[in-house]
Amino acid sequence: MIQFQYVRTSTPKAAVDAVSKAQNARFIAGGTNLVDLMKRDIMKPEKLVDINNIPLKGIEQQGNKIVIGALALNSQVADNKLVQEKLPLLSQSLNAGASAQIRNMATVGGNMMQRTRCNYFYDTAMPCNKREPGSGCGALEGFNRMHAIFGTSEKCIAVHPSDMCIALVALDATVVTTGPKGERRIPFSEFHRLPGDNPEKDNNLMENELITAVEIPDNAFTRNVHYLKIRDRASYAFAVVSVAAALHIENNTIKDARLAMGGVSHKPWRLTGAEKALIGKPASEETFRNAANIAMEGAKTFKYNAFKLKLGPNTIVQALKNAAEPV
Amino acid sequence: MGDNHNPDQPENESFAESRRNFLKNSSLLTAIAVTPGVVAKAAENDLGEKIASAFEKVPLKMEINGVKQQLSVEPRVTLLDLLREQLNLTGTKKGCDYGQCGACTVHVNGQRVLSCLSLAVMHEGQKITTIEGLAKGDQLHPMQEAFIKHDGFQCGYCTPGQIMSAIACIREGHAENEADIREFMSGNICRCGAYPNIVDAITEVKNNGQKL
Fold first, then answer.
1. In chain A, what residues touch B188 (CB-CB under 8 Å)?
2. What is an example of a Pfam family matching this protein (chain B) (predicted)?
3. Alpha-carbon separation of residue A154 from A136, A137, A141, A161 (angstroms)
4. How far is C-alpha A61 from the chain's CA centre?
5. Predicted ipTM > 0.85
6. Least packed by Cβ within 10 Å: which of A13, A59, A299, B105?
7. From the list A23, A48, A101, which residue is nearest B114 (CB)?
8. Domain A5-52 has CATH 3.30.43
9. What is the tens place of the pLDDT at every residue in B67-109?
10. Spatial distance between the Cα atoms of A95 and A98, rounded to a whole number of angstroms
């Protein structure tokens, strides 16, 4: 790890000011991903601005939305009574991610800022346009079993690694930020981006902008929800494919639906076409299968990940079944 | 146990220490060589903020196993390396050093965290408990007793992390049944495969209902 300056700040403004003053500065909260990447010399910030003293840990209902501070820990959110009651899908997704120790360190904002776990991004001996723009993509012709099938580019086929973000994009969350130009709100589906020609950018945050909160509408998805994560071992592994499913069912008819997928794209992948195919239909396997087939339209596979064309829809169907009949 | 020399003062090297300091200094020189930008910025300062320039150690107060410590660390030192290298608390193990194995699990303000993925400077004013802080004199912690009784280890390398994690798992209310325990202990890898016995140890301590 290279040497760096270290600064503690206790207000969002001080943090933004501090990070703005240096060329290559980063905010640090839990550090679970950043410290890992710094140890491997994948990220080399010359200054770290510690934001842990900023009071942004609150989880509360504000009118018709639930507001979660950016520094609330993943474990605090997952175990929070309000979240468990009103946003059980979010709680489930958080508990599917990482380990208990990491969830005690990782924050909501930091979870959103996670970098991909693509092996070629992590291996500094290999080319990677995300780590070193212009160097090429090792995964494109490499071992790409874990890689994306939606929204890829010739520059990058990496996937976004978070579970929490899959639930948040399904639940129509909004990201609140503050930066040199003041506060703004970004719809969750527009926070992360597709790789296109510049995969070095994971998201649409502006320079020196700080995430301060996530707002989630107080919705009808309090009962018929399920986060299903398929991984190579039972726990503590990144998703091969994951699905966040939320249904509002009345008299066995689907009144409203939310569906998103992880492990398939550079950003949390919302399935609006499949949602439309669910609404107004009976909550049956046939309905779910039809929606799952619609969800997979436009998928493009690579040498080792064509299995996701089967695993993807099967995971969607199972997640919807589990949501329709929660245990 | 504490580190008595002041890291800000030039060291009065003993022969035994010299190799270690050579390694420290040479790695520092390497760091200077690869980060020229930092040198210029090291002069930057800001009133009202605690700034540590690139080559300064940061003063750090922590309470470790009930003992107040006044320390001085480079910002890049992890909590794990501080415990092991500076305070000689080598009970906390370095397994993967990348947050994948759980061997380095300690408690910070009563919560289990991975000390390898945490910078020491981020724990100003906090209370750290390591495996060395569990026993009261010769009286082992109930979880330590249970691990011995149920043979919850073979080689023992992951054990300190397993025990710290196990105590927290019960405190958090995530040890209600075997499935729960296995899920919430999944961040602690045991290559020897002592999992069934670890689950038995945790179950027994949970069922005894003692305050941990």
1. 99
2. Fer2_2
3. 9, 8, 11, 20
4. 22
5. yes
6. A13
7. A101
8. yes
9. 999 999 999 999 999 999 999 999 999 999 999 999 999 999 9
10. 8
